[in-house]
Amino acid sequence: MSRRDGRSTRLQHRPSRAVPALIVGILLLAAGVVLVWLTIARLVNGIWPTVLQGPRDWLTSLVWNSPGVWGIGIAAVVVGVILLLCAIIPGGFNALTVNDAGSNPGGKAAPAQEQETVMTRRAVARLAKAQCSQIDGVGSASATATTKRVHLSVQTPLHDTGDLRNRVTDSVRKSLKTAGLNPVPRVTATIQSKG
Amino acid sequence: MRQTAGTLNRIWLTLLGLVVLVAGIVLLLQASGSLHALLNTARSGNRIVTGDLHAVFAPSWVVAIMLVVGVIIGLLGLLWVITQIPRKNAARTYRLHDDGGEGFTVCEPSVLATAVENQVNTLPGVVTSSALLRGTANAADLTLKVTVNDRTDVQDLIHRIETSTLPDLSRALEAPLQRSRLQIDVSGRTQSTGTVVHSTGTVVQ
Hints:
By secondary structure, chain A is α+β, with helices and mostly antiparallel strands. Chain A has five helices and five strands. Chain B: This is Alkaline shock response membrane anchor protein AmaP.
């Protein structure tokens, strides 16, 4: 929920489900507007708008086991399951926790009663890519990061890639550990020879 | 930095999902005739609308109820859409002293946030920073976003922030910080500055 008590929320959070919420919110708004417009037209003109004639005829001709009712029922079940899945599936965290316990070696009191330090997934990917680009034999690299895994796609001019994969993963893992990520995500790499 | 409506969205999506799912299941049970066998509802071969719709929707109070329902549904939808806008929820003016007859001292949190940003921007490797203060002067709540270049020693940066910036802010407020949240981002630009040592080809034995 959007906080109004003036306190900060955790920087490491899961997706807020804004897209399904926006879609359902707009549909509710549209339904409300249509209902208000129909009733105001009824109050002003004294009769219901003629646009309702079609739906009314369709509704009066329906029996419970007609294909239309089955279709509406199935659609409602599907929509209900989708909405529930949107709410229940947690999704991945947007950032990784950075350990800052070792940065206060003097044993001084913490500067704040509650501390949180995070690095965004994009930042981790950029850090991994930068570290990877410094390794001899790496032509170009791209990286993607989740909270549990960092994957590097490396292009190399070398014909014989040899132990390049191990050098890349070891170096990047060491770099992420030095940055203080806790836990350190698993580092994987695919090597593509351009030679 | 900005706050979103994650919890509200999950609650409403769950509630609406359950309502729509149950309605769909009931409709399917009724269409198949199972509900008639269980609860003695209308037979599946019967018409859905048995009476005269004109007569049902003719009274003015029915129209009024539909109008109210429409307004409520529309307002709920509109409020839900508006809630999706991420909010800063920044602190209001801090009251540093309030000694009655001796007067009082106030300070805009944005002033302190700018001071924090200026100090953080001088730290090695920092490209830019953004600070936001929440809470009160006696229990301040700092959220700091720092963008660094890809060569920065992150642990050293955290150490510097914790040993200089945060204590300075705490001293300025004359109260310990309640919460400190630090988000580190890495600039997309590859760091090109620094000392580059070219090889001369000389062999030292």
